[in-house]
Every structure is written in structure tokens, then in C-alpha cells.
Amino acid sequence: MGAGPAGIYAADILTKSEQPVSIDLFERLPAPYGLVRYGVAPDHPRIKQIIHALRRVLEKPEVRFIGNVDYGVDLKLDELREHYDAVIFSTGATADRALDIPGIELTGSYGAADFVSWYDGHPDVSREWPLTARSVAVIGAGNVALDVARILAKTADELLTTEIPDNVYQGLAASPVTDVHVFGRRGPAQAKFTPLELRELDHSPNVEVIVYPEDIEFDEGSMAAIRESNQVKTIVKVLQDWAMREPGTRTRRLHLHFLHRPVEITGSTEVEGLRTERMELDGTGNVVGTGELHDWDVQAVYRAVGYLSSPLAEMPFDHTTGTVPHQAGRVLDLDEQHLPGVYVTGWIKRGPVGLIGHTKGDALETINSLLADIDGVDLPERPDEAAILRLLADRGVDFTDWSCWNRLDEHEIGLGTAAGRERIKVVDRDEMLSVGKGD
After folding, report:
1. Looking at the structure, do residues 118 and 223 belong to the same domain, yes or no?
2. How far apart are CA 173 and CA 70, in angstroms?
């Protein structure tokens, strides 16, 4: 269940095993590829190239894509177990992790995941986004925080060469933003973004990236991290260089702040500001508060403090970690016993950590567990490959298949070609279905 990278990698590994397989990849959306399509920023075409590798897996004769099927609504766990030897959940993480500070509920306070879904044209979110703030705060020091900040800070015309839908272009074009502030709780050596994401901030001809010299602090733990990791060393070097340069004259500014912990979003009904506490490094790379407070004049706040998976119907779930309890991918019930034939992989298994490439090793562990168990698994009652499609049809589920995706894919590419772009996404779910089915 789930046709993003985690599910597709698991399918790929299974097809390469000595076990003869027939795999159905179910997806809640009409289109495949998960967060590669609906989570990677549109100005990251290099990362989106992974779709070519994922497509080759979905084209394998042993693999069947079945989209627009919502687990827990259209299909139940018992029904899946009746039709398949094994069920792997790879549903990912699409919700925002909570940030428990006063004012988080104010109008103008948003989760980054919701904003990402908007600018990536997710069919289940509103087509409108309230881009009315002149000055914006983004809380977090990971790649998602940088994506959100970069999309907010860039001009809409800079993104017009990408696959963004027209409503996103129009929304960004009307934005009055001049300043975007990114806040990290710890120091530069503890930032979680990658060097590539960081450097890309400075590629815009319209956005000035500003780093403050007083935020460039290191303790013994920081120096150890720099010595041990070339990635950390590169990030720190870039930030140091930016902190030393003279301010430029670009019309928009993206400020990177370190050692600032958000303590309150201020305002009565709408966001009027963000209050942070100045932090200091404690020698280990961690931080302690100084009690020194700063108020920032912002009219919108985006929290990018992590993704969180959603509970799955009829499945155990750890609400603290946002994962399904498992042992090497084998789902564990409330008595910590393996639920026969049921497995997890990807972020629903390990939490929203690591890059797309890390998903391969995670899938390999799960598939190894499945293959080790397969001789002891009860055979399904309805092994006929057409049986599940009949069940969905009888329920009136308007599911899509691989041919539907190919028609939609060609249609989006055609829209892009007409506009001198690689692709323009179709956003509306009903339109996706209509185009996919050739209506």
C-alpha cells in the first residue's frame, strides 16, 4: 500500500529475488511516485529525475499499479490478506509534526507540509493559499525548511519554467513578501539540510541570502562534527563565507538565523510576530537557553519541524514516533507478536528521516524478512489476480491503472510543451481521472 519510492523499491527488490512474484502497488492518489511528485520542490528537477528509475520498476510485467484506492475506505486489511500472500505498507509521512508553543493556532500559522502540498499541486488541498505576508518566519533547519523558504522568497517568474500549476504561479506572483527568516534552534554545525539545498538558496538573482556573524558559533561538539563529516564541514564553510560578505542589493532577502528557539507566536487573532529565545551551545553540540528574548516582525509563520505519518486502519500505531511497531519490517501486534503476512517499509516504518536513497536499504531489510517468512504464510483465499479488481469495481471504486497514468503523464507533458515547459501538472482529482481514462 503506497506507490512512492518506498513501495516501488520494495517491489523492485522482490522482482529480483528467486521467488516468483506478482505484485500489486496500491496508491491513494490517481498517480504514482508519492513524495517525489508531491513533496519535492518544483525547482528541483534533478531530484525529480529519480522518477525515470521508478518508472522502470512499474513497467515490469510482475508489477501492477492500482491508483485512486484509499486503504481503510476502499479496502480493509482482512480483504488484502484474503487476496495476497503478504501485504507491505509503505504509506509514508505527509502530516506536519506539531509544535507546542503559544499562538501556534493563530491565523497565519501554517504547517510546511500543507504548503508543500499546495505548491506541488496535490489534488486533496485547496487551490488557494493566503500569501499576504510581507515578512515571513520559517521554523526549522532541514531541507523542507529551506524548500519552503526558497519558494516563498523567489519571484513567481523564476518558477515559471517548472511544472507548477497555474494557480500556484498566480498565487506566488501576487505575494508581497520581501523578507523570509529561517530559524534554527541549534548552531550552524547542527543544521540538518544538505550542502546542495543550502547552496541553491544563493542561485536566485532576486534573493539576497543573509547570515549573521553572531550566529556563527562552535563548541567542542561542533568542532568534532566538522572533523567527522565532510558534509558538515561544507555547510559550515558556506555559512561562514556568507556571514563575511557585504550585503547585496537584491529585492528580496532570505535570512538564516541560528541559535534561536521559537517560544511564542504573538498576536490576538492573526500572526503579528514571532518571539524567540537566544540559545548557546553547551559544549556537546546541544544548546541551553540564555533567557534573552527577541521579537521578530512577521505576519506569517511556517513550521517545518518534521513530517509525521498518519495511523492506518486496523493496524497498531505508535503515536509518539509516528510509526507502525515492527521488527525488521514485520508488523507487531499489541502483544508484540508478528502479524502474519503484514510488513512495513519507508517512513511509516522508520519515521521521516533520511533521503530518498536511504529507502532502498530499508526496503531490503523488509523484503528479506518477508522472503524468510514466505514458506510459513497462509495461502490467500482468493489468489486470482482479477479478484481484487472485481471487488473494487463492485464497490464503485474508480481506480486507475498504468495505462491511465501514461495518458495523464503524456497529457501533462503536452501541456508543458505548449507553454515551453517540461510539464504542467493537472491538479484536480476528477480531471486527473478523466484524462487518465480518456474521457
Report:
1. yes
2. 35
Among candidate residues 366, 384, 400, the one where a domain is terminated: 400
Q: Is there a domain that residue 435 lies in?
A: no
> Could you read off the pLDDT tens digit of each residue along the chain, which spans 439 residues?
999 999 999 999 999 998 889 999 999 999 999 989 999 889 887 777 889 999 999 999 999 999 999 999 999 999 999 999 999 999 988 888 889 999 999 999 999 999 999 999 999 999 999 999 999 999 999 999 999 999 999 999 999 989 899 999 999 999 999 999 999 999 999 999 999 999 999 999 999 999 999 999 999 999 999 999 999 999 999 999 999 999 889 999 999 999 999 999 999 999 999 999 999 999 999 999 999 999 999 999 999 998 888 899 999 999 888 999 999 999 999 889 999 999 999 999 988 876 676 788 899 999 999 999 987 666 666 678 899 999 999 999 999 999 999 999 999 999 999 998 889 999 999 999 999 998 7
Q: Which residues pair with 300 in a beta bridge?
A: 136
Length of the chain: 439
Q: How far is CA 408 from the centre of its chain?
A: 22
Backbone phi, psi, residue 210, to 5°: -120, 125
Same domain assignment for residues 71 and 102: no
SS3 210: strand
**Strand, coil or helix: what is 338?**
strand
Whose cell is 464497490? That residue is: 395
Going by C-beta distance under 8 Å and a sequence separation of 6 or more, which residues neighbour residue 403? none
DSSP state of 202: G
| Together in a domain, 168 and 267 | yes
CATH of the domain at 117: 3.50.50.60
Written as one letter, the residue type at 261 is: R
Q: Which residue has the cell 505576519?
A: 299
Domain assignment present for 74: yes
Where do the DSSP E strands lie in 239-327?
Answer: 252-257, 260-266, 273-281, 287-296, 300-303, 307-308, 326-327
Backbone angles phi, psi at 73, to 5 degrees: -115, -55
Tell me the C-alpha distance between 244 and 211, whole Å: 8
Domain containing 16: what range? 5-94+309-400
Answer whether 314's CB lies under 8 Å from 98's CB. Answer: no
CA distance 434 to 439: 5
The C-alpha cell at 273 is 510576530
Q: Do residues 80 and 102 both lie within one domain?
A: no
Half-sphere exposure for 111 (CA within 13 Å, toward CB):
15
Give the residue among 182, 285, 190 at the shortest CA–CA distance from 232. Answer: 190
Domain boundary, last residue among 252, 273, 307: 307
